[in-house]
Every structure is written in C-alpha cells, then in structure tokens.
Amino acid sequence: PRARSIMHHLWLMLLPFLGLVSVAPAEKGLEFPRYDGKDRVLDINDRNYRKAMNKYSMLCLLYHEPIPDSKELQKKHQMTEMVLELVAQVLEEKDIGFGMVDAKKDAKVAKKLGLDEVDSVYVFKEDRVIEFDGLLSANTMTEFLLDLLEDPVEVLDNALELKAFNRMDEEIRLVGFFKNQESEHFEAFKEAAEQFQPYIKFFATFEKTVAKQLTLKMNEVDFYEPFMEEPVTIPEKPHSEEELVAFITKHRRPTLRKLRAEDMFETWEDDIEGIHIVAFAEEEDPDGFEFLEILKEVARDNTHLPDLSIVWIDPDDFSLLIPYWEKTFKVDLFRPQIGVVNVTDADSVWMAMDDEEDLPTAQELEDWIEDVLSGKVNTEDDDEEDDDDDDDDDDDDDDDDDEDDDDDDDDDDDDDDDSDEDEDDDDDDDDDDDDE
Ligand SMILES: *[C@@H]1O[C@H](CO)[C@@H](O)[C@H](O)[C@H]1NC(C)=O
C-alpha cells in the first residue's frame, strides 16, 4: 500500500492534461479538445446516485479524499476533477456518466457502492464494477473507457487479422475456436472475457482455416503469456466461464510484463514478497532493443519459475516519471538497466553493466536473476550506512501517506517543488486525522 501511495502522489502531481493547451491552428482537422467550462461531472450523493446509475450505460466515479481547507490543495483537487471533466466532454456522445464521490461527505454512498480505495476510479457497467488502477490522465482514462465500450471478444475472421493478433505479444491474450456465435461455449468465453475487460484481450474465431493456423481444435482455448513464443492450451475443453476465470486468475502474472499506464498501480501492487525486478529499456533505442531481446530470451527460458516476474518499463511511455526515477533509483535511464526495487521504501540495487558498450549476455542476466531469487542480490545488504531506511519503521500502526512523504524527503535532500507538494500532503493527511 505504501508504494501505491507514492505512485498515487505522483499522479496527482503529474496530471498531464495541462499539456493540452494548443495554439489554435488556421486549418481544421486537428483541433485538440480543451475544456469548455461546462459542468458535466456530477457531485454524487445519497439522493442522486441511483438515478445516475440508471441513466447511463456506464458510470465512472472518482472516489476521492475529502475536499481540504487549504487553497492549494483545493486547486490540486480541482485539477483532478478537470481531468474527469475533459474526459466527460470528449466522450459526451458515448452515454457515460461521470461523478465524484467524497470519502467523508458521501461515505454512505461509497459504502453502498463498495468503493474502498480512495483516489481510485470505479466504472459501473451493467452488473459489473471495474476498478481503474492506472494513471489518471485524460488520455489514459479516455482510452480505457473506449476499450470498455467495445465487445469483450474480438473475432478473427481471416489471415490478416490473425497477423495483427500475432503481433500483440506484449499483451496477455486468449483465443478460442468455436462453432459459431450461438455456441454455448463461446457464450461462456464471452462471459469470462467481460470479467477481464479491458485488461486482458480475448479473441475468437469461427473459421476453420484461422483455427488451423492457431492449431486450435473445436472449443479449445489457448492462453498467450506476454513475450512467450508458444501459448498454453487450457486443459479439458470445453470450458465453463468459471473454469476460464480460474485458469486466468492463476496464470495472470507473467514472467515478463510491460508497465502500462492503464493499470500501472495494479501491476506495482502485485509485488513478489515486497520487491519487483524492474528492467528499464527504451524499445526505440538500439541498446534498449537489444537488451530487451536478451531479457525476453531469459524470460522464455525461465518461465517455469513461479516467483519470477520482471516488470519492463519503457521510459518513453512515462516521460514525466523519468527525473523521479533517476533520482530515486540513482540510475541513468538513457541506458538499459535492470535492478531490484523494494516497494516499501523504493530502495534499489542495479545490475552492474561494467563496460558501457557491453550489454550482459543472456547467461550473465540469468545468473544475476538467480542471485536475486536466492536473495544473494538484495536491497538490504548495503543498508547499514543508510539511516533513512529505519525512520519509517517507528510508527508502523499507521501506514498512510505521511511516511512515504518522509521517505521522499530524505531521499531527495530538499528538492524544491517536490517537497512542497509533499508537505502539503502531510497537512492534508493530518487534517483528515483530526476530523475523524
Ligand atoms: C524492504 O524494505 C523494508 C523497509 O526498509 C524492509 O523492512 C524489508 O525487509 C525490505 N524487503 C526486502 C524484501 O528486502
């Protein structure tokens, strides 16, 4: 939860919609949306939530901390709301409702709706609740909601579509072969797909030729782990919805996964005994690309290890986080890096890549990973000299944000903007505590 808070604080600082102010061009066709000032986001309360639920095909609610007294923090809150307003404006034609639920004022509604994680967005679609655990930027939110509006299963009709499917190797994918749309087994597949939409992609084909290329028999479903060459066939076809859900839930954590804006917090929370093995590599960069190829090879050779899950971060996808990561992890992100990060305190160790020019071989990388898994490489060995790390163990009873901010401050040695932000957050948290 603490790592999550660090990340959440980050997104509050990042709100990239600020970058949307564009110079008005003379030509038409590239007019970037700017907030028009109209109120579309509802203030959800005990009296209006039912109506809102019934009115829209989807309702998207931000469950937020109580609105603070301080002017600055109110501004921060308004910025978050603006993200939602802009998304609401852009998607105005799509029959999606938007609302804010105050953790204190609307506690009763929150309880009724089952909202429990403050600063999360919940989407209500038919009888499902989908938690959005990603970066709250207008871009990411919009993409997420558009994905949710699509059919949960995409049908592959021909070789061309199959080609596109084969290229999606960064995603967890399932593909099944069914008789037709009316097949009860396809129905079960679709029901399962709905439960993972939009995070896990589901495909189906009704064409014998396509199925043959996928080596699928009738009613068979293959599960593709990201970056692996061969899929796993889910045993004992045909499958009920429950069997599919159980299989996916069990195999969901891949050996190598790419950090994505739409579920970055969820991924980060899915640590393995408090740590992540993190690889930074820019795919567009020749060294980064080569390093990734080595990493994929090692992942394929070691996919049988249940405790191995490497998070690949392409810094290009998270430009706003680069300075923070470089400072926190003390690494140069222009070079490929692989290291171990403790998600409690963001303490980290990084593999030495001795020669600037020389990337590790697959064998060297594998040996290093083995040392991480056996505990020989860890973030704690060098900690004696490092007093910072002990601070936050003093008051374990309350694991909320104050501690993170303290950590940040220690690490950052007085950084201007960040620490201001952090102090504000402390105030915020204190206020909340007093009020309760
Ligand atoms: C992570 O850091 C915390 C706090 O410093 C420490 O208590 C914990 O043992 C560390 N975890 C691992 C796996 O090194």
TrEMBL record:
This is Calsequestrin. GO terms for cellular component: sarcoplasmic reticulum lumen; Z disc. One of its GO terms (molecular function) is calcium ion binding. The keyword Nuclease does not apply. It comes from Gadus morhua. Residues 1-26 form the signal peptide. Pfam families: Calsequestrin. It is found in: Sarcoplasmic reticulum lumen. Residues 374-436 are annotated as: Disordered. Calsequestrin is a high-capacity, moderate affinity, calcium-binding protein and thus acts as an internal calcium store in muscle. Calcium ions are bound by clusters of acidic residues at the protein surface, especially at the interface between subunits. Can bind around 60 Ca(2+) ions. Regulates the release of lumenal Ca(2+) via the calcium release channel RYR2; this plays an important role in triggering muscle contraction. Plays a role in excitation-contraction coupling in the heart and in regulating the rate of heart beats. Residues 380-436 have a biased composition (Acidic residues). One of its GO terms (biological process) is regulation of cardiac muscle contraction by regulation of the release of sequestered calcium ion.
